[in-house]
Amino acid sequence: MTVENEEEGELHQQTTDATAKWPVLRFDSPPRKIYHFFQQFKSGVENPSGHNNFFKGVKWSPDGSCFLTSSDDNTIRLFHLPEEASYIDQPASDNQDSYTSTLIVKEAEMVYDYCWYPYMCASDPTSSVFVTTTRDHPIHLWDATSGQLRCTYRAYNEMDEITAALSVSFNSSGTKLFAGYNKMLRVFDVHRPGRDFEQYSLHKGKDGPSGIVSSIAVSPTHSGMLALGSYNQSTALYAEGNMELLYILHGQEGGITQVLFSKDGNYLYTGGRKDPYILCWDIRNTVDIVYKLYRSTENTNQRVSFDIEPCGRHLGAGGEDGLVHIYDLQSGQWVAGFHAASDTVNGFCFHPHLPLAASSSGNRRFSMPDNCQDNSCLTGDENCASIWTFG
């Protein structure tokens, strides 16, 4: 065998090994709900405000050992995934919680955004961290094992007052922390907490986003490409090294609430509030939109998240109709859908290496003082988080 053939054989073997690690997700039948959570989010010690607490999102840890939930009581909760989750047969009960959270982090104000350290591993306590950004507070780095605050990253305005980031994300190597503000991006060195940062003004003349940076995504291919979604309905792509503006994408009908790269880094998916379509962009040719994926978000200002499965073939998105829609990303065609909740499914994400997914649901309700029935109370099938298996 020649050297070239040996290299090709090794590359093919590596590709085969990597493909073998991808979970097999079947969408020809509805998924089964194996875990369900709602009771512990009602009134109690952690939630004295009571019935109107609702979920805002859910995110798996990079190693898949646990997931975080965010809710309207300014609280982040951590749930560990049981070892038997990949082969459990019994469906979850809708009348009680499957188990309780193992960690509760209470913030003082509304949580704007949160994310995991990209190389988080439960067996390595030093890497088990996540960050949150809240109203009128600095960015917090939390220990996912003990729940202790490890450090803070503080940005100040021209009045020397702390200004809160509206979005956060680590870079692909985990050494920098990107924080989005109004017309501005600040970059913190993860290993140097405090008030030291690099600052980049994004709106220069007619170029760059002119609104609040609401979502940040980093290319998974380590190419150094950074996508910033803005509430001014545009998405801007930058080179991470010098923050050179590469492209500006227009076409979303509402303010951008999420930007997400495909697994190969060649495509970018954007979604907005009060906008029923997720737009697909080919970043190698950004003249036109590749296709649109429908989701029921025409009437809500909520962040309704979507996610791509580990092998990169399908995208799942929730909506106001309580359904999760699955799309084939090669063709942009609808593949399947299933009923996840009786309210807005505002969070949906695939497990990083198992045929599982997590969903969260609920929305803000306003009660009338003279209404004795109080329709603002969310039930267990409305305000809930669930874990699904695609067998």
From TrEMBL:
<protein>
    <recommendedName>
        <fullName>Telomerase Cajal body protein 1</fullName>
    </recommendedName>
</protein>
<dbReference type="InterPro" id="IPR015943">
    <property type="entry name" value="WD40/YVTN_repeat-like_dom_sf"/>
</dbReference>
<dbReference type="InterPro" id="IPR001680">
    <property type="entry name" value="WD40_rpt"/>
</dbReference>
<feature type="repeat" description="WD">
    <location>
        <begin position="48"/>
        <end position="81"/>
    </location>
</feature>
<dbReference type="Pfam" id="PF00400">
    <property type="entry name" value="WD40"/>
</dbReference>
<dbReference type="InterPro" id="IPR051150">
    <property type="entry name" value="SWT21/TCAB1_mRNA_Telomere"/>
</dbReference>
<dbReference type="InterPro" id="IPR036322">
    <property type="entry name" value="WD40_repeat_dom_sf"/>
</dbReference>
<keyword id="KW-0853">WD repeat</keyword>
